[in-house]
Specification:
The protein is α/β, with parallel strands linked by helices and 242 residues long. The chain is built from 6 helices and 11 strands. Strands 3-4-2-1-5-6-7-11-8 form a 9-stranded mixed beta sheet, with helices on both faces. It has a two-stranded antiparallel sheet with strand order 9-10.
Length: 242
Amino acid sequence: MLLLQRTKSLIQAKKMKILLTNDDGINAPGLSALANIARKFGEVHIVAPKRQHSGCGHQVTFHNAIEYGEMEPNVYWIDGTPADCVRLATSELIGDVDWVISGINQGSNLGNDVFMSGTVAAAREAAWLEIPSIALSQYHPPSNHHHWGWSERLAKFVLEKFLQEKPQRYRFWSINFPALPTDGSTDIPSIRVCDLDPTPIKPEYRPDGRAYLMANDYHARPRLAGRDVDVCFSGEISVTLI
């Protein structure tokens, strides 16, 4: 307990400057949940997309002007992607920051998801800019709705640990929270540092008139024991250094 109190005091004494962003948009509940927790660790600035950009990957805006607006002090929306948010925030709107935290994504980002995720791309962009960064995502199976109070508890738990453990240069943490247990347990799950699951997923589609809809069952995806998909789906917090 004494060590934890010293850790908290050390974090607060440093008055870290933290940039928050996401890919679900400025009004997403996951971003609000993250802000509630991040303010316990330092000075929080938010620069997030005006609208949802889930699955946009590491797309950036080169040829069009990027509109922005200030909703309140230190809170901005921009009409761009998550990677744009990090670029514009650190170069123009906010300036230097100690950490970039992206999320909390409404859905997991596991295995090959990290190459499609805007949430993860924001953390990757920060790492390329040599800023320590973390991507946070919340898994939920079909039978289990989002419980943002649960996500806040897990975010506080991991940030207490990982804000003291900067990743290597040009690398970042991708952290996925498991679903709230259905047995009523509210115990904080264990953390498992693990590798990405490289298992390929063959795309499946079903026809819909003159169109096709994705038909893959995300929750039944193949997985390797001990890799991030298996760890998160099994109820632990998966942490991967990317």
